[in-house]
């Protein structure tokens, strides 16, 4: 089976689906947003993990079509869900999508216009790998996103190899602590210290903090005590199909 061909088939035949994982306000326990995560189940290959097909798509160029799909679907849903709750929607972007910054910015603006989602409700998630690229246009593109009122988050924080100087250079709104640091909070004193330090640093830089991969109440309690604003993880909910997320959102409001 040629996985490239199957992925192209999936794009052309509506076989991709967006799932939504609730973003929880740790102080109130309520849903304040969602992260959109792509799912692909192929008739021949079965369930293909997103990190596998995203990597493939980055190599064969299909990432632009996947990215457009994720953005459009997520904004459409979130625009609809504004009637239930003023929730935010976080969409993952690959660094490859930023190679043509102008085109990407135009795409984002066009999708927001078309779907009617307020700009402040979109959260663009990028990883530290984007910060390694020294494209001169990146800086002005990210500044323009923020100028428009769009949120910008640094995802998987702490797992990349980039210097921390980018945190000053770009105006991020949120920092998402990678689940690798959250996982062992209950057992590991070093991880507790590290998470404490990351939260303190984020606060000093005026960034909101999201802790990812929360699976246990003890982890949530620890993070709440440290004034971590938001959490995501299986403790609250795994990523859900749109209709299931919508039910949860209605129950929560
Ligand atoms: O969803 P998990 O649900 O398995 O996702 C695994 C990885 O795939 C994560 O790093 C996530 O950021 C990435 N991913 C999931 N959906 C998307 C998407 O729509 N676009 C991009 N660029 N990455 C995604
Ligand atoms: O999260 P859950 O317990 O439902 O996952 C069960 C199995 O399904 C896991 O082996 C996982 O690899 C796979 N899986 C995880 N997320 C999804 C998804 O969004 N859709 C489908 N079809 N399978 C998934
Ligand atoms: O890299 P990014 O943060 O975009 O990807 C989020 C990934 O984390 C997805 O694969 C999602 O399914 C997964 N995830 C979300 N919550 C949990 C959790 O509590 N535990 C684990 N192990 N994975 C999680
Ligand atoms: Mn993410
Ligand atoms: Na992450």
From TrEMBL:
Identification of the protein by name: GGDEF-domain containing protein
Organism the protein comes from: Psychromonas marina
Coiled-coil regions listed in the entry: none
Occurrences of domain EAL (ranges): 1-253
């Amino acid at each position: 089976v040629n996985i490239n061909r199957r992925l192209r088939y999936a794009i052309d035949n509506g076989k991709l689906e967006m799932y939504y994982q609730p973003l929880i306000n740790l102080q109130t326990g309520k849903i304040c947003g969602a992260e959109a995560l792509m799912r692909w189940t192929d008739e021949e290959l079965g369930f293909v993990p997103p990190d596998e097909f995203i990597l493939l798509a980055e190599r064969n160029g299909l990432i632009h079509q996947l990215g457009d799909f994720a953005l459009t679907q997520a904004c459409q849903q979130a625009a609809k869900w504004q009637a239930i709750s003023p929730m935010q929607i976080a969409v993952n972007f690959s660094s490859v999508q930023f190679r043509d910054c102008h085109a990407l910015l135009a795409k984002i603006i066009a999708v927001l216009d078309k779907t009617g989602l307020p700009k402040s409700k979109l959260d663009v998630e990028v990883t530290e790998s984007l910060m390694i690229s020294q494209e001169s246009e990146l800086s002005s593109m990210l500044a323009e996103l923020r100028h428009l009122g769009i949120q910008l988050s640094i995802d998987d924080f702490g797992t990349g190899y980039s210097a921390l100087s980018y945190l000053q250079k770009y105006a991020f709104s949120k920092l998402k602590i990678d689940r690798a640091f959250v996982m062992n909070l209950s057992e590991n004193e070093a991880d507790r210290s590290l998470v404490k330090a990351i939260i303190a640093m984020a606060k000093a830089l005026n960034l909101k903090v999201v802790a990812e991969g929360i699976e246990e109440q003890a982890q949530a309690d620890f993070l709440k005590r440290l004034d971590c604003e938001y959490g995501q993880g299986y403790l609250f909910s795994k990523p859900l199909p749109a209709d299931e997320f919508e039910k949860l959102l209605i129950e929560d409001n």
